Amino acid sequence: MHVCEAPEAAAWDAFLVAQPYSPFLQSWTMGEVYRDSGEEPVRLEIREGDELVGICQALIVPARRGRHLAIPYGPVLRNENEREQTMQLLVRALRDVATDHRCSFLRFSPFWPMGTEPIPGTKPAPLHLLAEHVWLLRLKGKTEEELLAGMRQNHRNLIRRAQREGVSVTASQNPNEDIEEFFRLYEETRRRHHFVPYPADFIRAQVRRFAADGACTLYLARYQEETIAASVHMHFGGETSYHHGASSLVHPKIPASYALQWQAIRDAIARGDHLFNFWGISPEGVKNHPFAGVRTFKTGFGGEILELVHCCDLPLNPSYMFTRTFETIRKWRRGF
Q1: For residue 55, how far is the Cα from the chain centroid?
Q2: Judgement on whether residues 275 and 297 belong to the same structural domain of the protein
Q3: pLDDT tier for residue 99 given thresholds of 50, 70 and 90
Q4: Among 11, 316, 305, 322, residue whose Cα is nearest residue 137
């Protein structure tokens, strides 16, 4: 078994698609999005002979609080029984990359179910890198009627009400242009809910890169010829992910966001997707979590929670303690 740089996209994405979960953040295209945003991707693959048994897309993050190598929802490994041996080789390779790029630590946020053995040598990170409580709706073998029956009654009623009120939901035919309409609503949503938004250029790069392959849909929900809700959904490996959303309070009683998500679910069924990923929610009972405001909305569509292992760090030099202290204080101030 050995670790090497990944030479091309096709084998990489084919391996990722073949796994039980295919987080698009580990896709080759997403690496190009990060590159567009100033974070250089590092793509390593683990092979046993000529056979690909694991992939790991890491990012060189030039953060002021500490330059580091981040691994978003990776690595992705084929065989859990070989995890210990595979991770020993991979960590060694990542250490070398991090040292070459003057990084002070490695930050892992793997898409591994809670209870998975921790990566040797790591310690729990002060903060999370990505959502660690993910709400999933399984679509395989389900009809629209069955999915509607699995929703909260209030969600079914609001979807039907949006239809009666004349809300129309369309997939943009020109997402690179129409994304500016999304940003108008995104800024309004940010002010209303007081969250830290993704940078606009990052979202533009996502849409540009993925839409070119038909792997991204920008949905626009309109009422009385006005766009009052919008979302960006990613499609990869038979999974649709609700990644960015925005809405207006111009017509607060019109449930456009419910109709929008239902249309995205119906389109996912039509594509033959097996999974609809609503992305992050808050842990039950935690009210000051950044995803607390969307928990009721997302879970009402039916589905189940997947709890992931917590983000972990592997310190590489003493300067890591500066980052850890800074982030621990920030966590204390925020309360999560």
Answers
A1: 17
A2: yes
A3: very high
A4: 305
Count of C-beta atoms within a 10 Å radius of residue 199? 11
Neighbours of 87 (CB within 10 A): 24
Alpha-carbon distance of 217 to 235, in angstroms, equals 8
One domain, residues 74 and 156: no
What is the distance between the alpha carbons of residues 50 and 2, in angstroms, rounded to a whole number? 10
Query: Hey, what are 197's tokens?
Result: 């938004």
Q: Evaluate if residue 335 carries a pLDDT over 70.
A: no
CB 134 within 8 A of CB 280: yes
C-alpha dist (Å) from residue 15 to 46, 77, 146, 293: 11, 9, 32, 35
Q: Which residues pair with 222 in a beta bridge?
A: 168, 227
> What domain range is 191 assigned to?
134-307
What is the domain count for the chain? 2
Same domain for 300 and 326: no
Q: Which CATH number is 9's domain given?
A: 3.40.630.30
CA distance 63 to 105: 12
Q: Three-state SS for 41? A: strand
Angle at 233 between CA 232 and CA 238, to 5 degrees: 170
H/E segment holding residue 309: none
Mapped onto helix, strand or coil, the DSSP state of residue 187 is helix
- Token pair for residue 270? 């039509």
Residues 104 and 19 in one domain: yes
Query: 84 and 74: one domain?
Result: yes
Question: Which tens digit of pLDDT belongs to each residue from 132-152?
Answer: 999 999 999 999 999 999 999
Whether residue 175 sits in one domain with residue 91:
no
Please tell me the pTM assigned to this model.
Answer: 0.93
Residues 21 and 114 in one domain: yes
Are 292 and 282 contacting, i.e. CB atoms less than 8 angstroms apart? yes
Question: How far apart are the C-alpha atoms of 276 and 136, rounded to whole Å?
Answer: 6
Question: Are 104 and 47 in the same domain?
Answer: yes
Each residue of 43-82: b (16+ CB within 10 Å) or e? Answer: bbbbeeeeebbbbbbbbbbeeeebbbbbbbbbbbbbeeee
